[in-house]
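User: Sequence in, structure out. Go.
Assistant: Echoing your sequence, followed by the structure tokens.
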Amino acid sequence: MIVRGVGKVLIGAGLVVLLLVAYELWGTGVITSSHQNALRQQFERDLRAHQGVTPPNGTTPATQPTQTVQNPVPPPPEGQPIGIIDIPKIGSNYVVVEGTSTDDLERGPGHYTGTSLPGNPGNAAIAGHRTTYLKPFYSLDQLARGDPIYVTTFQGRFQYKVVDTLLVSPDDVAVLKPTASPILTLTTCNPRYSAETRIVVEASLVSPVVAAVPTTMPVARPRSLADGRGGWLSAVLWALACLAFGTGVWLAWRRWRKWWVPVVGLPGLLVLLFSFFGAVNPLLPAGY
């Protein structure tokens, strides 16, 4: 009996792990997709207010790099859109938000707070997930020297060209330091499904540069494997909720043996597990 009980527990734990993997690879994409749809509509609406531009629905607001730029604007609040990054070679087109916290990067690629805004003098740095949350930088390693990168902000549409690709330590902040020339720095974890190192793509500005807004905000460092270790109570509470609900479904099935018990119970358990995985995810090593 003990061996059978332990076996059932291990099988159940294995199923939970498999569901967690599915959540990381696909479930997180559902979350980000919802955020991106709302952020794109918000950005296009705000862009019309800033520039009087009416972009085609669902597309990047402009097709050519800008030759005349608007006055400089301050960075938006954390989590709000700063622009759209378009990397044609790898098919990456996403709304970029301000900030690189766990919550920010769930919404899309994040602009490192304290670095320059795209199109401005200095180093404009953006981070993105590699294999989760719609994996915006999944193929970043395929970029080569001369490949174009476009960023549309409230100041215009700016073109960059790739000049270098680096591999650095996850804690290396040197790639985020201010630069004399206007560049764009993209960072993501490397290799795929690991945060062992960080791949960095550097690109130089081709379009005209705009005047920067002075800032005293510190540059946010890349997240390390030790980041995101809060929220244990939430994860434990969701785990207890899943355990209690799952036990109730199992007991109901043993008592009545009716087909409707799993039909009604399993969807509810999956919803609870989705919330549990969402609470657990910030506790996992940063990256991916």
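User: And one key feature?
Assistant: The longest strand covers residues 156-168.
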